[in-house]
Amino acid sequence: MTTVSFDQHSPEYARNWRQINADLRDRCPVAHTDAHGGYWVVSRYADVAEVVRDDETFSSYYELPDGSHNGTTIPVSPMRQVPIEMDPPEFFDYRKLLTSRFSPAEAKKWEPLVREATAYCIDSIIESGQGDLILDIASPVPAIFTMALLGLPLDGWHAFSDVTHSIIHSTPETPEYNSAMVDLMTILGQVNDVIARRRVEPTDDLISHLVQAQIDGRPLPDDRLMEIITLVIFGGVDTTGSLIGNALEWLYRNPAKRDLLRADPDLLPKAIEEFLRYFSPVAGLARTATRSCAVGDQKIAAGERVFVSWSSANFDSEVFDDPDEVILDRFPNKHQAFGLGIHRCLGSHFARSEAHIVIEEVLRRMPDYVVGAAQPYPSIGVVNGFISLPVTFTPGSAAGSTLRL
Ligand code: HEM
């Protein structure tokens, strides 16, 4: 067994993840670390794909004899999320409930709202010539969209955006994290109010869909309902915000490419796939072995935890030519940024459409933005993004969004 010193939460990993991943792929593609009680780290593309496609051997919700469980994060998150932390056969019933609401056609249907939200957010800073790409745009747009999708009142978007962003990047037990947790409880209280109202008077939103849904002829239990909603909130907002933030920061440092994408937004779909690969906003998640097995040449025992590193798989030179280069028209681009197998990201169509609209509009309306003191996340853990990206730019005029928030 090769033991390495690895912790995806460490500041060193946040600073140096591409190099650390490359060393792992070269030297010990299936390595063991003692961090967080011990787990395996799988870093090559083929091995990561093998693990996540074998959902019988590698569980996303592994019950322990003491009644606790292992989910998809290391360490285990106090709040279970569904269906990401669920195994077949139960998993399929829950995934089926959601697929129709996350289809490419639904993403298309939501485009006008995303455009309005983007106009609204850019309007809030455009006349002043300064703002923050993350706090004013990349986090709020996915927040407003997610609230609309769920059916939450949009006027609470500010708190919603701040909470989803702060909880992801702040360190547990710090005052910032504790205060974000308090705000989260307020938001979840509002979610509960909306659930109660939709039970009486359903509309067309996702919460109405879920309160009317049935599995085996019975409505969803309240805890499952909340576990789905928390996943949509935490799976959808900061992940997409991080993709947008990373892309805009890179485009600032590569002005010729920024000009290219601005001049021809038709290049954006392939460029966004490359940003997904290169920044891998969800760096990795975990499984638990249900039986003794082997990955690569390492034996893994039943009950051991396995971290699958999508951010490493996406740089594997067995699959990608010049993986360290950003090639905006890379094709094919079989990245694993949205995962693979039965749990592959349900929100991928939304994420792509939000990123497309926001990047296109920022480049169109703020083409000369200059990024100041960028603050990357001090720890990657799960999501890899920026706390803030202050910018200055030539002021412009408001577009006049119809959203009144
Ligand atoms: C750039 C943005 C995003 C990235 C990189 C991303 C990444 C991922 C990944 C890697 C998984 C697989 C997890 C696993 O195998 O354990 C996943 C699952 C999921 N994502 Fe996303 N995601 C993004 C945006 C979104 C959005 C916008 C939503 C919803 C609005 C969303 C909802 C979900 C859900 C519900 C699952 C669980 C699917 C299942 O278990 O069947 N994601 N995502």
Question: Any overview of this molecule?
Answer:
The protein is an alpha+beta fold and 405 residues long. It has a single domain, classed as Cytochrome P450 (Cytochrome p450). The chain contains 14 helices and 17 strands. The strands form six sheets. A six-stranded mixed beta sheet has the order 1-2-3-13-10-4, with helices on both faces. A three-stranded antiparallel beta sheet has the order 7-17-14. Helix 6 packs across helix 7 and helix 12 packs across helix 14. The model has no long low-confidence stretch (mean pLDDT 96). The chain binds protoporphyrin IX containing FE. Protoporphyrin IX containing FE binds next to helix 10 and helix 14.
Characteristics:
405 residues; Cytochrome p450; 3-stranded antiparallel beta sheet; 49% helix; binds protoporphyrin IX containing FE
